[in-house]
Q: What sequence folds into this?
């Protein structure tokens, strides 16, 4: 029995070590390559096309999907972590529908007020244009949705699944540190602390990353659309 416990403890410690090292590597790579301006510098000429901003954003979203979702999924599967452990079950979506509606409605006036904070319009919208182009804007929002999924997969799926067996509820706060570090706009970084805690608690309560993802996606889309409105583009 003691040997089984020792093996389980060893497996849990290995998961913590792998998750911690990989999170540090992600931060290092994305610090250098994770911004569209950095990707533009290394982007091959033939990839740019007439919609260069959209092309760069596609590469940006794809890079995050690779680093924050695809590779972690491979790592998790290799270490015996299932999709259920990661939180990919969808049953909690319908149960959380009222919460998601409240979040979506309540966030609108809050985001609108925050849009008057100095620096907001320097950070948003993330996809900038001189005049509104709805096909390009919709394409960008789809890319943005994929990017946010990779964020939720990593910080509310992969990391909790790897850390919780060894750290319990403390895994929420450990995963919060690299999540906050992904935000460079100071008010956004400060806001990421309570948001990250709430999303982490929602993940632990429901056992699924989908309610948190949908809440995050709703608020992020509202930020982007309100920023476009504040710039007079629609």
A:
């Amino acid at each position: 029995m003691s040997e089984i416990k020792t093996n389980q403890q060893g497996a849990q410690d290995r998961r913590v070590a792998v998750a911690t090292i990989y999170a540090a590597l992600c931060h290092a790579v994305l610090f250098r390559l994770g911004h569209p301006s950095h990707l533009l510098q290394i982007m091959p000429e033939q990839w740019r096309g007439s919609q260069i901003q959209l092309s760069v954003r596609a590469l940006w979203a794809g890079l995050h999907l690779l680093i924050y979702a695809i590779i972690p999924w491979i790592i998790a599967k290799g270490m015996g972590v299932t999709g259920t452990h990661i939180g990919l079950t969808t049953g909690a979506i319908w149960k959380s529908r009222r919460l998601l509606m409240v979040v979506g409605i309540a966030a609108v006036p809050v985001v609108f007020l925050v849009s008057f904070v100095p620096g907001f319009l320097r950070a948003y919208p993330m996809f900038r244009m001189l005049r509104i182009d709805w096909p390009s804007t919709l394409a960008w929002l789809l890319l943005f949705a994929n990017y946010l999924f990779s964020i939720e997969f990593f910080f509310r799926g992969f990391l909790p699944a790897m850390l919780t067996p060894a750290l319990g509820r403390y895994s929420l706060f450990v995963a919060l540190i690299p999540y906050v570090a992904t935000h460079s706009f100071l008010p956004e970084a400060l806001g990421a602390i309570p948001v990250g805690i709430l999303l982490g608690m929602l993940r632990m309560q429901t056992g699924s990353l989908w309610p948190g993802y949908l809440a995050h996606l709703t608020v992020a889309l509202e930020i982007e659309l309100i920023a476009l409105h504040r710039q007079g583009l629609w």
